[in-house]
Structure formats: structure tokens, C-alpha cells
Amino acid sequence: MQIFFNGRIILEETLLDDSAVFVADGTIQRIGPFNQGEVPVDAELIDLTGQFLGPGYVDLHVHGGKGADYMDGTPSAVIQANRAHCRHGTTTIFPTTTTGSRAQLERMLRACAEVRAEGRIEDGSRIGGVHYYGPYFASDKVGCHSVEGRRDPDPDEYRAAFDLGMIRIATCAAELPGAEAFYREASDRGYLVTCGHSNASYQEMQRAFNAGMRHVDHFWCAMSSVSTIRQRLGAPFQASMEQFVLMNPEMSSEVIADGEHLAPDLLEFAYRMIGPDRLCLVTDANRAVDMPAGAYCFGPTEDGAWFESDGRVGRVENGSLASSVAGMDQLVRVMHRDTSSSIPEAVRMASLTPASRVGLANELGSIASGKRADLLVLDAGLAVDRVFIGGVEYQTPGGA
Length: 400
Ligand SMILES: [Zn+2]
Ligand SMILES: [Zn+2]
Known about the structure:
The protein is an alpha/beta fold. It has helices at residues 75-87, 102-118, 155-163, 179-188, 202-210, 226-233, 241-247, 264-273, 328-338, 343-348, 352-357; strands at residues 2-5, 8-10, 15-16, 20-24, 27-32, 44-47, 52-55, 57-62, 64-65, 68-69, 90-95, 126-127, 130-132, 167-171, 192-195, 215-216, 252-255, 279-281, 294-298, 305-309, 313-315, 321-324, 375-378, 384-389, 392-393. It has 2 domains: 2-53 and 382-393, Urease, subunit C, domain 1 (Roll), CATH 2.30.40.10; 58-366, Alpha-Beta Barrel (TIM Barrel), CATH 3.20.20.
């Protein structure tokens, strides 16, 4: 039995003082009062010294960290990125593909499968599944991804990828030929089905929704707006992905709340209009996380797209953004700082909400009895002090 006591517990809706979290065999048993006079002999006491105890974070959209991109396609690259994100509080991670060749995507899926099968605590964040993100992007919305690596959905390709058994989230631009068949296949397999890097109209979104699409990647980034739909389809002006998400309560989305991609007013808008139960925080982090400023490759080392990191964010040559260099802890701090969200809400957007969207909320995502003891000790400024995965404390191999 582990007893986490003397802290402020971040529950789904509220902060709880004067209580302890009791963990046995890696599972949260109960949350309740704790009397130091009645400690079971075999109990391990973990004194939180007045700090916060929160749930481990869940990142649905992340490309790499500490020099490694998941598309490098080796188990060591996967582990390197997972360790970096674990130190930033992510206990469940969804390594995310970029555009690339079929062979590169398969290599990445196999590397993730290998690391997940080993299941070692020292390898960092646990892999919840892969986010099959590239390559089915609209050609006018590829963003910082390599344009040569994008294509229209190919059933033979994606079925083979799905059959590897690692994917839990699947993205495709809704306006591409074959998108609806892709969505149907992915939703039949129980994935979170998402539309991203897309210039889809409202009507295309409605057809996608009918085929199982329920989520939009990084709101306001590489997605359609009334003005881009007007450029594409003329008058009368039509609604876009933005209106579709805001109007449809079954849709969820995500924001890169690193303080660099979206100004506080847009974060507040997303918080109020989409709300903490269908808005996820995602790092969309690239390999420059925890690395010095400099030039890095987005996607596979051999032929990915180059960008520059100034230590705060990535940018491509024309100055547009090339994904974040932030860990999830930073996003939670920024969301709480820049919006009227409470601490439980900011944390929930990084934990329970994403866990719910991928169907894992029964197992993890909040501090509740019966859930896995994925726990973070956070200081008063919400910086990560200690990380527990299934009740076992994560220690960076070799220190640092
Ligand atoms: Zn993207
Ligand atoms: Zn991304």
C-alpha cells in the first residue's frame, strides 16, 4: 500500500485538501481521510509536502522530443521521446505519424509496438496507441509536413497499417477522395476518428461525421475557416470546420496551448465555446523539445522537412509555425494562466478529456478509485516534481 498524503489533490472537478490517496498494486484504491496514527505496517508513505497531486497527462498528438522523432522509426528514438515527455508529466502517449512513405509509416508502427510490448517503466510514457496522422492531408494544408509524403487515402495501405494493431486515433482530411471509406473503417475499429490538415466545407464535415469522424486536430491550425472556404468555393460564404465543431456537441477538438501558437483570447474562446469536456490540450511537440535552439528535421531524419527552433517554438522558412517544443506541463500552466479555467479544468483538458475521447477513461485520466495510479506531484506553479506510472516512480535513467 502507498499513501500519498499532505497534499492538494486535483480531482476531476475540485481540489481536495486534508485527504490522502491510497494505492495498491498500481491501482488507486480510495481517496479519503488519513490518520498518521493508523498507518498499516507495510505502507509506504509519500509526503506531498503541501504540493499538488494530479493525474498523469494524456497526449493525443505528439511527434517527438529530446532529439528524436517517432518517424525515425527505431525503438531507441521512441524511448528517447517517451522519456522526455514523461519528465513533463505525460504518462500515456500517442506517438503521431507525419507524412511519409508507406515503408516509413510501417517502420514507425513496428518500433512503437516493440517498445509497448517491452513495457518497461524506465522507457518513459506508456504508449496508449499510435495516432495515424499523416499522410492523408489536403495538398493546400500540409503545414510543416513534407509535401512529397502526402497522398489521398489508399485502402490497401491503411488497412495494412490498422492490422498492425497499434493505432487508436486516425486522421484524414475530409475533402479527399476516399475519406469517407477511411472514416468508416477507422470508426468500425473503435478509433477516435479525426479530420485535420483540411480545407473542408461544412457539408464535407457533415458527410465525414456521418461516416464516424468526431474530432478535429489542432483547432485553428491547418484547418478551414469561412475565408478559406470562400476562396475555394466562392459565394455565398459557407461554414467551415470551425463552425462544425462549435455547433456539434458530439465533436471534440484540441489546442496547442504552448503560449506560442494561440493568443490568450483564442485560448479563452476555445475554453468557453468548446469547453473543458470536449477540448483537449495537445503538445504537437517535435524533436526539439528539451533541445537547444537550432535547425531540426520534422518527420523522418532521412527526408523530413527542416525547421528552426528558437527554444520557444518551431518555424519553417517562410516564418509559419512548425509545431511546438513544449511538454504537457507547460500547456497546463499556459491554459490556466491565459484563460479563466480553474486548475482542475486545465488539468482535465490534459488528462480525463483526452482519455475519454480515446475510450480509456475507465482505466486512467483522473484520480478516482479503480483507476491506474498514474500520478504527478506538481509544485505551486504546476511544474512537475515527481511522476508515478502505475504507482511506480519514474526516474530518468542516469539521472538528469
Ligand atoms: Zn498538424
Ligand atoms: Zn502534428
